[in-house]
Design brief:
single chain, alpha+beta, disordered N terminus, 25 strands, Ntn_hydrolases_N, 19% strand
Length: 693
């Protein structure tokens, strides 16, 4: 028997239980056996999902997903994601490495059984592979390498080069980003139970299977319920140990930089110009296999700043990416086992000393009355210009000069709210989410003196759209409208600004907003931005003009409109354009449909379920104004952690806990998620059913 097989056997003394929604509750004699059990049940429930993520993290997904996956694979190879994961794993302390290794052993032990029940493997011809000790770190990096939105700097560079540096701020969004979340913490004096409540909902691309896995991990040292990331051990973002609970949102910090590089060939080698002159750069070539197409060779180049992700030695320009895990050789995984053992907010706070990426705002509460609100992660100290645009790699002024410390924190008085707004993390970022969600959550919380877990769904599902104000203000001043457009104006000025699925007024507003966005994007003043720069396709969502206008609409309609653009005239024309369509009785939910991402899209089954909410509502079911009313990003989970009684906690996910199509628990939570309901967190072992296979 091999050493790894012996370890897997040693870790097999775990028991697996399920609650009525199929959530795995795992019990083992020690943390290593428990980690192995977590890996095994994840492989059984989510084999296709985690194998896709493994291949995406190593840049091999096009080999079975085809040419559509090539752009991502190329980026992952060029950014050296897998190599970074290996480096970070090599630097782990022995105890954390052993714990991660136990999880990997469990995954490998469960993959065959999981793949056998997942039809996607047969459909693509993919065979389950073997996870390496560093694979969970690579999966984590793959999820978060774009989390800080560094392609936004490529957009600003594009604007500056085409319209001039002064135009960059015209597209300031303080609006929807790649990912965000809502979170709020109520101290004991603001609840009806005498203990704190912690609630929220992470906003991410809605995927099938879901990006979060409801799970319970119990051994003599701890007993934790929470939302795990499939393929990664422990419970990183949202957990409740009984004595203490924690949750995060994206801090919107700026911690990745893009450098302009001057490269040249020196025979088979490559050189890069740095502050000290020309220096050798790392260079090698990799081959990407592509299903249904010829293999593609990728030249991988890395300078002293970081891996080159745009252009190369034969191009006029090139851009490299510098990101903390690559620089530090550390991904912060030592935090994960410490969080499981936490009993107080001080323990959570102490565990976060390791945290690197992504940079988060963290809230925590414990049963002794402790409260925590702080930023966690690694943010480099450097020139302010690094945060705005592409900066020259040959200029020493833009080099990193250490790390921000200590990270910001705030005292919690009664309640605290985090919703990606410009607040606690403001010194660490450039653009943040608009303050609408944070203000609305605070307003809702302050309207009631005492809250319980069951009442929190009313906050999660609030559909008031504070961002509607600027467009409605311009519409109110519009004159010379035809009868239908004038009727639309009066109707929207009476509208309650709630993006409810059954609201025809919400649909009328969305139609008007989309028309305004398209007209601004098509204006001759922005014509030079319509042609995308020659950047890799993986960055296209950050560079396409219409989504950029849609996300910045509130700003573009505000006090600093685009030069040469008469926004009042555009709004008036848009109102005339959509007046007849908006006069109909089409409700918002008929337009606003869920469109979850699937690695292997199935046959077209028609539009997804109708949704309440919109991107600046607390119920942040994001559309892309001017492009589509459909929703691709929204609450990937909802939760309430009750510190009075953990069994009174609540949660729900968009589909279900199992990733296997046809399984009873593949989508059995969908109805509750769509209705805004929260399901009980079952903690009584007597209410669980043990699985014996």
């Amino acid at each position: 028997m091999s050493e790894r097989s012996e370890r897997t056997s040693e870790h097999s003394n775990a028991r697996r239980f399920r609650d009525p929604w199929g959530v795995p509750h795992l019990r083992a004699d020690d943390p290593l056996a428990l980690a192995a059990a977590q890996g095994r049940v994840t492989a059984y429930d989510r084999a296709w999902q985690i194998e896709v993520e493994r291949h995406r993290a190593q840049g091999t997904s096009a080999a079975f997903l085809g040419p559509d996956a090539l752009g991502w694979d190329r980026f992952v190879r060029q950014v050296r994601l897998d190599d970074t994961a290996r480096r970070c794993h090599a630097a782990l302390d022995p105890a954390t490495a052993e714990w991660v290794g136990a999880y990997v052993d469990g995954v490998n032990a469960g993959l065959a059984a999981g793949a056998a029940r997942s039809p996607e493997f047969a459909a693509t011809g993919l065979r389950p592979g073997r996870w390496e000790p560093w694979t969970p770190l690579a999966v984590w990096l793959g999820h978060h390498i774009l989390f800080a939105g560094f392609p936004g700097k490529l957009w600003r560079e594009h604007v500056a080069q085409r319209l001039g540096p002064d135009a960059v701020d015209l597209f300031a969004t303080d609006g929807p980003a790649v990912a965000g979340s809502n979170g709020w913490l109520l101290a004991a004096e603001r609840t009806g139970t005498g203990a704190a409540l912690l609630a929220g909902d992470p906003h991410r691309f809605i995927e099938d299977p879901g990006v979060y896995q409801q799970i319970r991990l119990a051994c003599p040292e701890y007993d934790v319920v929470g939302l795990a990331v499939p393929g990664v051990p422990g419970i990183a973002h949202f957990g409740h140990t009984g004595p203490v609970a924690w949750a995060i949102t994206n801090a919107m910090a700026d911690y990745q930089d893009v450098y302009a590089e001057r490269l040249r060939r020196d025979g088979p080698r490559v050189q890069a110009l740095g502050p000290d002159g020309w220096r050798p750069a790392h260079r090698h070539v990799e081959t990407i296999e592509v299903a249904g197409a010829e293999p593609v060779e990728v030249e991988v180049v890395e300078t002293d700043r970081g891996p080159v992700i745009v252009g190369g030695p034969d191009d006029e320009s090139a851009v490299s990416l510098r990101y903390p895990p690559r620089v530090r050789g550390d991904l912060g995984f030592a935090t994960l086992p410490e969080l499981l053992r936490a009993r107080t907010v001080a323990d959570v706070d102490h565990a976060l000393r390791h945290w690197v990426e992504p940079v988060n705002v963290v809230q925590a509460a414990d049963t002794a009355g402790g409260l925590l609100h702080r930023v966690a992660g690694a943010v480099p100290v450097r020139h302010p210009g690094n945060g705005r645009r592409v900066v020259p790699g040959w200029d020493a002024a833009y080099a990193w000069q250490g790390w921000h410390a200590p990270m910001p924190r705030a005292e919690v008085v009664g309640r605290s709210v985090m919703a990606n707004e410009r607040g606690l993390a403001a010194p660490l970022g450039v653009e943040f989410a608009a303050a609408h969600r944070a203000r609305r959550i605070a307003e809702l919380l302050d309207a009631r003196p005492a809250w319980t877990a069951d009442e929190m769904a009313s906050v999660h599902t609030d559909t008031y759209l504070g961002a509607a104000g600027p467009l409605l203000a311009v519409l109110a001043e519009s004159t010379g409208l035809g009868p239908a457009a004038a009727a639309l104006r009066e109707r929207l000025l009476r509208w309650d600004r709630r993006m409810a699925a059954d609201s025809t007024d919400a649909a009328a507003y969305a139609l008007l907003r989309a028309a305004v966005v398209r007209r601004i994007a098509a204006h001759p003043a922005l014509a030079e931005l319509a042609e995308l720069p020659a950047y890799p396709e993986v960055f296209a969502p950050w560079l396409a003009l219409t989504p950029r206008v849609g996300h910045a609409l509130e700003h573009l309609l505000g006090t600093t409109p685009l030069p040469g653009v008469d926004v009042t005239a555009l709004v008036r024309a848009a109102a005339e354009e959509v007046a007849d369509a908006a006069a109909g009785q089409v409700p918002w939910g008929d337009l606003h449909r869920l469109a979850p991402w699937r690695a292997l899209p199935g046959p077209d089954t028609g539009p997804g379920p109708r949704l309440d909410g919109d991107h600046d509502c607390v119920l942040a079911t994001s559309s892309v104004p001017g492009v589509t009313h459909w929703c691709f990003r929204g609450p990937a989970a909802r939760f309430v952690w009750d510190l009075a009684r953990r069994s009174d906690s609540r949660w729900v996910v968009p589909l279900g806990t199992c990733g296997v199509p046809g399984d009873p628990h593949h989508d059995d939570q969908s109805a509750a998620w769509l209705a805004g309901d929260l399901l009980p967190v079952v903690t009584d072992w007597d209410q669980l059913a043990e699985e014996l296979h």
